[in-house]
Design brief:
single chain; 370 residues; alpha/beta; 14 helices; 46% helix; binds zinc ion
Length: 370
Amino acid sequence: MATTGNSPVSPRHATSGSRRICRACVLSESPPDIWLGESGLCNICVEWEQAGAQAVEGRTLLETDLTRIIVKHRGKQKYDCLVMCSGGKDSTAALYQIVRRYRMNPLAFTFNHGFVPDEHVEIVRNVVRALGVDWLYFDTSSMHEMFRAIVRSRSGTIICPICSLWYMNTTYEIAARYRIPLIVSGWTKGQTTGSSRSAMTTCACNQTSQEHQSMAAATKAFMRDVKKSLPAYRDFPSDMEAVLRIARKRHKTKAVALSPHWFLPIDTAEFIETIKDEVNWSYPEFSYPRKTTNCDLNFLSSWLALRDYGFSHYHIELSNLIRRDLMTRDEALQMLDASFIDEAFMEPTLKKLGLGVEDLAPGPPRSLKG
Ligand SMILES: [Zn+2]
């Protein structure tokens, strides 16, 4: 661990502009989770280098691992798999491969928590039409009170992981309802759980690594408050383990969640051209990180993460890709430029939540109600 020479400070008392960034990945110094040693490398990169080729090899999944799972599940139910489709390049490529490469019959589905731009929904509509697959579209405002509470609380809680809990919980519920044995997402190699064993049993929203420690602790404390203060979310899963537990016990499903991208040695640029040509996919006009497809709430979530920690979960994901030589540091830095996200830019999203830019002002933690 590269933990010499610096004294711990609260991550919420520094601005991202004043933080040093690791010279190998894109993580900012953010004690107590991320430390930069005298070499300019962060503790995560140092550990990665020390683990060496053996550890990297242990994390490699092969296409034969994927085909074994596919053969086991194909043709047993009406739908072979449930494909989570945001309209982004990664989930579109996953759906494309499931249909064209593996000849499976998927149910594509898209969730809209009220902040998915119409443009993204239209992209998915085009794709499912081009591939000729059934599509389930789900639109709800049921999470608004939770999102509002996150912003108001000033607790260091990040919106996206909480949204993922809701999203995955609902995904398992739908898989159970349609008796679908396999859940397919467009999670990248930067979003793997780290080993072939866990890839087969859990989803990629892993919050247990060193980089996530402070964010995860804040989320845990927030979820405890939510259950006490907001009755609508009393049964809401507190973490991904709870999602899996509910899936097994309440929804009675053993569906396996995975991403084809974990198994395939395909370059991102290669499949972008394919889905552009073959299923009418296109980049949305505006997104964060750049060249991705994320909802409007994601701008606010990323801004809060940068304010509170100096990095977001995208910095963690892209740093993983850099360490695996799947992206250059310069590419990642360009994608992660958040200079265009200011308070005025976020105002329409805040307004939808019944909040204003004054709710972004620093200050002591606040009650969840209101
Ligand atoms: Zn690093």
